Amino acid sequence: MAKPATFKDHYRETRIFRTRAMIALGFVFCVMLLLISRLFYLQIFQHDTYSTKADSNRISKEPIAPNRGLIFDRNGVLLADNQPTYAVSIIKERAKDIDNTIAEIDALIGLKEGTQKRFKKRLGQRRRPYTAVPLRYRLNEEEIAKLTVNLHKMPGVSIEASLVRNYPFKDALAHTIGYVGRINARELKSLSKNNYSATEHIGKTGVEKFYEDQLHGDVGFQTVETNARGKITRVLDREPPTPGKDLHLYLDWDTQQAALKALNGRRGAAVAIDPNTGGILAFVSMPAFDANLFVTGIDYKSYNDLQSSRSRPLFNRAIQGQYPPGSTIKPIIAIAGIESGATTWDRTIYDPGWYKLEHDDHLYRDWKKYGHGMVNLDKAIMRSCDTYFYELAHKMGIDTIHNFMAPFNFGVRTNIDLVNEKRGILPSKFWKQATKSQPWYPGETLISGIGQGYMLATPLQLAVSTAILANRGKKITPRMVRSFESDGYIEDLPPPQPSPDITISDPENWEKAIQAMKKVIHNPRGTAHKLSKGIQYEMAGKSGTAQVFTIKQDEKYDASKISEWHRDHALFVAFAPLSDPEIAVAVIVENGGGGGTNAGPVARAMIDAYLLPKINDTQIDLTAVNNL
């Protein structure tokens, strides 16, 4: 049976289509209305808010690091400057894979061992995101070219130009100028977050550290516009940084060089000071190190080599080395004996080559085996007679010695404008009881009288005490920096206020002690008479020898049979000219032996370098010096 035929209901279909079309149109209209409403809300009511947000993505304020101040010597010789350099840096947020990126850079230019570890440490110390962190400084032209052609493969990597601290004379001033290094986490906590927001380096030692505030300067800022890739398209506003102040030191580079040359690589220290101002004319500690190694980060091997070296090149002997002053203090002990009434200039004793306390069999020996015979105080200084000073110290007592020597800056810091200065030791009965819980023994007084035993002094303290002696009691405070310079204006630093001068009952005793020191050099029987050969001025000095270890009473000291590290230290102090002193020096040569023979020539070389250009009216060729 056939199906009945069906016909389309066009009217019904049309009605359904229109209904659906109206619904769809209504939906579209609602969506359009919603979008228009939202757009209107965002564009009109929220315009300021989103405009600010857009600008913050496009416009940013960046800090600008100030140029660090330069350092010059008294004659304008440049001692520390800033050199342009190129560094490869990485922005963590834009690098896809930090480790892979570093590996690619390593393949292109080669990175030293430990570079990646130090980089990641610096990465963790960033003060804000999207900051470029240097991976390696001091790129050469070939390395820059290799990196440049491959930058498109390494997102987040850039080559940036910057100024890096440079020390032209490398190790010659490492303990004087010091050095700068990267800011560490501990330092970040104490530094101004605003002023150091663009600074990567800070003074670590020496003048660089002590005068950090003056050398650093003030940070600047610039408002920049960047594209979607973070590249700066234009600078909208700029507030330039204020450069750090330049420092002019009292230091005389010629005198510094003379000390270095005279020491000739031997371990030791040499300090020269102007008795009139307290200005440090030379400041040497040997061995030293290349300060440039620390500026951009020293590698582990080089640092371990410096740290583990037996010669201790990182140790600043001039202010941290504490040595028995030996016979260099005898002129001061002599004046103390006169002032205390324990002796007179005319008093004479017989020196058989030893001194013995009553009821004690121990012999305190003189450096000259069979003694000096009959000696008075003047000859005791000139010939460095130990026996005379054993007896003098015993008559005075340790507390009298302590009280007279303390104003000469023994046992206290000199307050020089450097960091980490040691105070040395000026012993007394109270000191020993307080530090060792032991009584003081008479024999300890005797060896203190010749600068041995517990007594310790830094080379700087010896230079300062010598300057006070040269000044006939006028005290000084040692200073490295003479003036600041900013925008061409030089500002001299006011001299620090020293403590009251040392006064004695008869000022003529200063002159007598100084005349005895003159005989040390200018008398044929003086312990350093060889230094007078060809001299063009009058110099007063005193040699000294400090024992490193004690030999038995019945043994004879023989340097040839003793390890170099156990030989006596050689010391020498001096000043010149006698009538109007311009320079005072102190020298120690570790394990050098006799002071007059080994340390004396260093002192003479320093004084020659400073005085002879004035005496002979010659000029220093600064051009030749700066081209070194």
Based on the model shown, name its key terms:
disordered C terminus; 628 residues; 5-stranded antiparallel beta sheet; 7-stranded mixed beta sheet; Beta-lactamase; Penicillin-binding protein 2a (Domain 2); 2 domains; 21 strands; 21 helices; single chain; alpha+beta
- Estimate the helix proportion, in percent: 25-40%
Number of strands: 21
SS element count, helices? 21
How far apart, in Å, are the first and last alpha carbons? 122 Å
Q: Roughly what is the average pLDDT, rounded to an integer?
A: 87
Backbone structural class: alpha+beta
Fold and architecture overview:
- The protein has 628 residues and is an alpha+beta fold.
- It folds into 2 domains: 61-249, Penicillin-binding protein 2a (Domain 2) (Alpha-Beta Complex); 253-298 and 319-615, Beta-lactamase, CATH 3.40.710.10.
- Strand 20 and strand 21 form a beta hairpin.
- Helix 12 (330-340) packs across helix 15.
- The longest helix is centred in the N-terminal third of the chain and has 36 residues, at 10-45.
